[in-house]
Amino acid sequence: MVLETISSPQDLKQLSREDLRRVVDEARQALLEKTSQHGGHNGPNFGMVEMTVAMHYVFNSPVDKFIFDVSHQSYVHKMLTGRAQAFLDSAHYDDVSGYTNPKESEHDLFTIGHTSTSLSLASGVAKARDLKDEVYNVVAVIGDGSLSGGMAYEGLNQIATEGTNTIVIVNDNEQSIAINPTGGIYTALRDLRESKGQADNNLFKALGFDYHYLDAGNDLDQLIALFEEVKDANHPVLLHIHTQKGHGVSFMEENREAFHAGGPYNPETGEYLRASNASETYNSITTSFVLDKIKNDQTVIAVNAGTPMFMLNQDQRKQAGKQFVDVGIAEEEAATMAAGLAKNGAKPIWYVAAPFMQRTYDQWSHDIALNNLPVTTLVYSASVSAMNDESHLGFFDIPFLAHIPNVVYLAPTSKEEHLAMLDWAVEQNEHPVAIRIPVGPLRETGIVDTTDYSILNKNQVTQNGNKVAIFGLGNFYALAEEVAKELAAKHGITATIVNPKFITGLDEELLDSLESDHQVVVTLEDGVLEGGYGQMVASYLGDADLKVQNYGVEKAFHDRYNAQELLAENGITVDNIVKNIIKVLD
Amino acid sequence: MVLETISSPQDLKQLSREDLRRVVDEARQALLEKTSQHGGHNGPNFGMVEMTVAMHYVFNSPVDKFIFDVSHQSYVHKMLTGRAQAFLDSAHYDDVSGYTNPKESEHDLFTIGHTSTSLSLASGVAKARDLKDEVYNVVAVIGDGSLSGGMAYEGLNQIATEGTNTIVIVNDNEQSIAINPTGGIYTALRDLRESKGQADNNLFKALGFDYHYLDAGNDLDQLIALFEEVKDANHPVLLHIHTQKGHGVSFMEENREAFHAGGPYNPETGEYLRASNASETYNSITTSFVLDKIKNDQTVIAVNAGTPMFMLNQDQRKQAGKQFVDVGIAEEEAATMAAGLAKNGAKPIWYVAAPFMQRTYDQWSHDIALNNLPVTTLVYSASVSAMNDESHLGFFDIPFLAHIPNVVYLAPTSKEEHLAMLDWAVEQNEHPVAIRIPVGPLRETGIVDTTDYSILNKNQVTQNGNKVAIFGLGNFYALAEEVAKELAAKHGITATIVNPKFITGLDEELLDSLESDHQVVVTLEDGVLEGGYGQMVASYLGDADLKVQNYGVEKAFHDRYNAQELLAENGITVDNIVKNIIKVLD
């Protein structure tokens, strides 16, 4: 195996063209074995094998700087920079992250997991080079999907303005995470592909780039020739390279949306091995709700930025017709378009993963909240127990969203509550409402929730007690019940249990009433402690005769952690919470 | 006067072409009188007079929907939609805001004050129209400066994708707030202007727009003809209209950067009437510091997004040469470019106004903080006492920034501290550091600050006392001193006074030590209460034997308020703070 002999790109440069081709084949085989067993970003990496080999063959990393957009397509780059074992030996599969990571290698400049940032990073890296009077290539690789993000355009502008060496590789596999929308940049790229780069009105040329088109983006020889042609250019170059997503694996080539990411799967048939999910989940009831609303009201519209499959599959999107819109990987557009929709009498339901919602602070504040528009936002993966890559953490949403005026952010604790909140959010016309879709097993109360959510910040006391009051926010409501149970069993204390429901405001009447017969108030939230819900409670009760104990996760970019362990490290266990309560009771 | 007879656009439509021209002249005269006495956005409005009259003459607002980007150029629109008095009668100058405002008029769809949002809003408004099977024009007006923002590009893409009626007017006056950079979109626009719209590689056509160019953008007849031509189009149209910033006022035409906004000024000579600011301010010492660093270290670079004049004037920028970069009104690019600069060994100093920093949450989190890069960020206008338009509030920066891991956010209280923090921030290599430039009169201690800021979260106790500890953060440190003085004078209490210096973390040792001989801890911060600094203190001390009283402004979009009144409404007066302290003391 040639791949095993490559411990750095220097080794690659010594190989014959034939051996390089063997590296391509071996790398693709390693990808198939690892991703079929381990899961990961499939299609993007299979399409990039030849290009990555050619990049390392022609350029000189780490002197030349490679920046991969999102960096989910960097697996072969990792194989060629001393980390092949993590793809060849299943015992070492977890040695590397799924993204570039400077802690792993000097060939990885940045930790990256979000879209459309590579060109801005490259503009800075190149400018620093120029300030220091150094000479080398800065090479950024960005997919056609990522080009829909506004930051990519800002980066293109800045690179063109600097006017010095930066080589932008547009890896155009004709597909974002989902199928590309038609129009705008996608149509511009299609016109360029169909004309082999000769179309009138080339927007990259308009912005000032030296533009090159390569149709055979999985042809090693042509890639090498192109890179050699532009290496060491003294001006901004844009290489528009047409690749095939999932190249070399028939079921990936055919079903590109399903094989963007996922696994494990059967490497022969492409059948995903995950258990079929027949039972109801919070996600599935949300999807049913949304489809039902769409069917019954032509002004309801589901809005999403580039990850539609997490709510609606391809059939369901077809069913929704013009009442569904995917704006591309352009979260800001999704948020502000939703504001425009709401203003003009439509009922937008925008769904977004917590780690990517954080791309839209100003759109939340200035467009949705300042204008106080009834946009319904469904926030998924907002939990310590959701994605656990340091670039994909979903538990900063409360400090992010809860302190923006006018926003109503809700934390359901059961199926019934979730459905009632959803319905209220979509049908009311007074507030921007976000709902933190619960993460965890579906909890059913069996009782239809008839709460009037227009009475803001009204908490639900689910058990009346004394001495101790426990506020279990959203996902942690069940934990509050467990703590109360333990207090009763071990210490004979009947605690008050509160389901706050509202993240964005306090039930001041309830909090005031606790002072008379409670000694300690405990808040539990499935998120970061700092700037969270509990700290608002602590502040409000700051000069009351009550102790307040807030639980949440310490702010840090925790990486590939075990959720239970992380919670335990932060004291979030029934035993520890009970112990701390008992400590402060008279 | 014809203008006085126009109470709605319907009145305008009845006028002869000659009378329309009189309206143009009268509107321009009213602008001159009001802005010279009252200040405001000058250049953008003077350049838009003819276009605004033509828009209201041809289109049918409010059935047709007008959306003005930033909306700082909407003064004439206001004059023509029932609000002329606010421009003709000085007693009524304050009746209207400087931006569109739905509370003022049905002709104003949105409250807007930030850049590049208009096209996304338009895409939503148009889509809602289509969902409801309604028919009318959606018209968005965006300047060439605003086109540099990534959201504008996302909006263009979505409008093109929808493929129905939206008319985008690019008001190209060849200038952003400052002089435009060269390159990218600015060069693309220049090529189109110079070729009268005929340039090869038209990026608007590439994105799918029906493109029209008008060179004579201050010619009423040509504007009317163009609008009549495209009105009721069934597809996306882009009108590239070349106007003159400050048109009709010679000193504005000549000095476009100075006359973007400001005032009052002498309407004959264009001389600004503000007192010359010879004495030192926090801004002036910051500028001197930055220029000095640039002079002595070729890797230092000042980075800014579209508002360079708030730190460096035109001469100073020239002096900085390639060690200054204005990326256009593209805050995300500025932040992430700074990350790239820092990664590659440069020392970026990014300066940004608090209300616009909020356009960069994900760039802060994912690009700067996750990668833990030594970017120095100087945050100005972060105070209740800074800009007071609801779209320009600068006091949400603490909940925004303080809960992102790895960030060190500093709050200086004096000239000496500010300079010491600046120097440490730029020269260290361990942390992303932001400094909240003080707002208010320069305070000098006369003692050089030799603090080692690499010892994070170490607070300074400036007076040792007992019973009461007062934490005066940044701008409110002086208030803490006043409260302490009053406590001493009226109640014989010597309070502990703390200058926290660090916003992003607590001095736990100090806080722990207070429990033995203090009864109440008071926090004072010049910002929003919710999610702020004080709430972290309250949480930390939640189960200590101490009361905590947090002061800050209640979260809301306060609009055109008087700062002293707003603070008083939020209990932030010496008397009230002292009263509440005494109340909880034994």
UniProtKB/TrEMBL annotation, chains A, B:
InterPro entries: Dxylulose-5-P_synthase, THDP-binding, Transketo_C/PFOR_II, Transketolase-like_Pyr-bd, Transketolase_C
One annotated GO biological process: terpenoid biosynthetic process
Family matches, as Pfam families: DXP_synthase_N, Transket_pyr, Transketolase_C
Molecular function in Gene Ontology: 1-deoxy-D-xylulose-5-phosphate synthase activity; metal ion binding
Span of domain Transketolase-like pyrimidine-binding: 280-444
Keyword annotations of the record: Isoprene biosynthesis, Magnesium, Metal-binding, Thiamine biosynthesis, Thiamine pyrophosphate, Transferase
Cellular-component GO terms for this entry: cytosol
Pathway: Metabolic intermediate biosynthesis; 1-deoxy-D-xylulose 5-phosphate biosynthesis; 1-deoxy-D-xylulose 5-phosphate from D-glyceraldehyde 3-phosphate and pyruvate: step 1/1
Cofactors named for this entry: Mg(2+)
Enzyme Commission code(s) on record: 2.2.1.7
Assembly mode: Homodimer.
Similarity section: Belongs to the transketolase family. DXPS subfamily.
PANTHER family: 1-D-DEOXYXYLULOSE 5-PHOSPHATE SYNTHASE-RELATED (PTHR43322), 1-DEOXY-D-XYLULOSE-5-PHOSPHATE SYNTHASE (PTHR43322:SF1)
Designated name of the protein: 1-deoxy-D-xylulose-5-phosphate synthase
